[in-house]
């Protein structure tokens, strides 16, 4: 396995082998090459997609970018034949409102979608597989957030059901949307719950749907807080009586 992260001001992806955390990128893989706009190469969020063939992709965001498509760039990660990883650009996609920035990206591997937060505007949804095109499938969450829609993650339950979770940065809340959309309309994602928590000014969140140990039997939500701490929540405490819990 590998871990992939972004280095904002070097404009590079950094890739490490797991579990030994050794670099396998020859010092970093440059991305957004050729971009000259202000902050168009300053990296922000990243999410990974693995297709049915086992091919691994990195979907990368940045501090600023064009409005009419191409804010996100997607790279195929592969062995370079010398024991390191190489990155090949396969597509540019994704609209941008121009209101603020796009930090948070999440991929639903099983259903094949990528979601990202266009801050102060809404949540956008596309196919994760580049062969399926660059048409925007959905824009949802508009009007649901007090300030910025920031971190985004997916809690998965049986039968490919579950939730898309988005942090409301200004209110110490999570907005929860149906992962599979409405009946007969899979790209319409209604708000199903608002959950309060203690993390403040949250930028990033992530969630694990599988049981981890006796403390986190039904999954784990992690949220960063502005005091430079990470808050860990049992999924059943987030779910309460409103949301489903994996057994």
Describe this entry's structure for a reader:
The structure is a single chain. With 247 residues, the protein is mainly β. It folds into 2 domains: 1-132, Neuraminidase; 141-247, no CATH class. It has one helix at residues 235-239, and strands at residues 2-7, 12-17, 29-30, 43-50, 56-62, 72-79, 85-93, 105-108, 113-118, 122-127, 138-140, 149-157, 161-168, 173-178, 191-196, 205-208, 220-225, 229-234. The strands form 5 sheets. The chain has a 4-stranded antiparallel sheet with strand order 4-5-6-7, with no helix packed on it. Strands 8-9-10-11 form a 4-stranded antiparallel sheet, with no helix packed on it. The longest helix is centred in the C-terminal third of the chain and has 5 residues, at 235-239. The mean pLDDT is 96.
- Radius of gyration from the alpha-carbon trace, in angstroms: 18 Å
| Helical residue percent band | under 10%
**Under the CATH scheme, which class of the largest domain?**
Mainly Beta
Pattern of helices and strands: EEEEEEEEEEEEEEEEEEH
CATH homologous superfamily caption of the largest domain:
TolB, C-terminal domain
Biggest sheet strand order reads 4-5-6-7
Poorly predicted ranges: none
CATH topology category name of the largest domain: Neuraminidase
Task: Summarize model confidence as the mean pLDDT.
Answer: 96
By secondary-structure content and strand pairing, the structural class works out as mainly beta
Overall 3D form: globular
């Amino acid at each position: 396995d590998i871990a992939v992260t972004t280095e904002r001001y070097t404009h590079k992806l950094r890739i490490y082998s797991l579990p030994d955390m050794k670099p396998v990128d020859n010092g970093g893989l440059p991305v957004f090459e050729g971009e000259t706009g202000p902050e168009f190469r300053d990296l922000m969020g990243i999410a990974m997609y693995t297709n049915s063939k086992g091919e691994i992709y990195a979907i990368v965001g940045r501090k600023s970018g064009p409005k009419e498509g191409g804010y996100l760039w997607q790279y195929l990660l592969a062995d370079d034949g010398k024991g390191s990883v190489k990155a090949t650009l396969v597509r540019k996609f994704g609209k941008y409102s121009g209101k603020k920035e796009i930090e948070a990206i999440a991929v639903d591997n099983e259903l094949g979608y990528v979601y990202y937060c266009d801050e102060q505007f809404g949540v956008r949804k596309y196919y994760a597989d580049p062969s399926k095109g660059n048409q925007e499938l959905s824009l949802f969450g508009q009007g649901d957030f007090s300030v910025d829609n920031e971190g985004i993650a997916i809690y998965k339950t049986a039968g490919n059901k579950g939730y898309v979770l988005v942090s409301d940065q200004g209110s110490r809340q999570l907005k929860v949307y149906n992962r599979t959309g409405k009946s007969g309309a899979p790209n319409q994602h209604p708000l199903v719950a608002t959950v309060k928590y203690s993390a403040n000014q949250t930028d990033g969140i992530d969630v694990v749907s599988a049981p981890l140990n006796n403390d986190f039997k039904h999954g784990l939500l992690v949220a960063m807080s502005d005091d430079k701490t990470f808050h860990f929540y049992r999924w059943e405490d987030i779910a309460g009586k409103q949301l489903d819990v994996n057994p």
